[in-house]
Amino acid sequence: QVQLVESGGGLVQPGGSLRLSCAASGSTFSIYTMGWFRQAPGKQRELVAHILSSSMTNYADSVRGRFTISRDNAKNTVYLQMNSLKVEDTAVYYCNIIGLHNNWGQGTQVTVSS
User: Fold this and answer.
1) How does pLDDT run across 80-111, given as a tens digit for each residue?
2) Handedness of CA 34, 19, 41, 65 (dihedral sign)
3) Residues near 68 by Cβ (< 8 Å), separated by ≥ 6?
4) Measured between alpha carbons, how far is 56 from 58 in angstroms, rounded to an integer?
5) What are the C-alpha distances in Å from 57 to residues 26, 67, 103?
6) What SS3 state is found at 110?
7) Any idea what DSSP says for residue 2?
8) Which of 4, 17, 63, 108 could form a disulfide with 67 if both were Cys (CB 3.0 to 4.6 A apart)?
């Protein structure tokens, strides 16, 4: 199992920005496709962005153009830069490996509110 620790969440006003980080344990991080997910109250967890080992990226329509996923393999870390935040972005954000069963971390709460 790869241990994942998310950080960087908080309370921000609509239109604001946050940068989330996800630190992973182990020595094989660079080969994984990593994803950022979110789960809002009463809703299912959804994938919002993912990044391949090649650093190719893809985004959900709801965040495309506002969010940017990136990775630093030397630091075993994946990031999610979130700009132009909306109230509907409020959720607990998680990262995880895509295509491989792995335990979820504790997530980080993002609250967008005026």
Assistant:
1) 999 999 999 999 999 999 999 999 999 999 99
2) negative
3) 49, 57, 80, 81, 83
4) 7
5) 22, 11, 23
6) strand
7) -
8) 63
The pair of structure tokens assigned to 21 is: 């980080």
Label residues 80-94 b or e (16+ Cβ within 10 Å = b).
bebeebeeebbbbbb
Mean pLDDT by groups of 10 residues along the chain of 114 residues: 96 98 91 96 96 96 98 96 98 96 95 97
CB 77 within 8 A of CB 87: no
The tokens of 58 are what? Answer: 């893809």
Question: Are the beta carbons of 6 and 108 closer than 8 angstroms?
Answer: yes
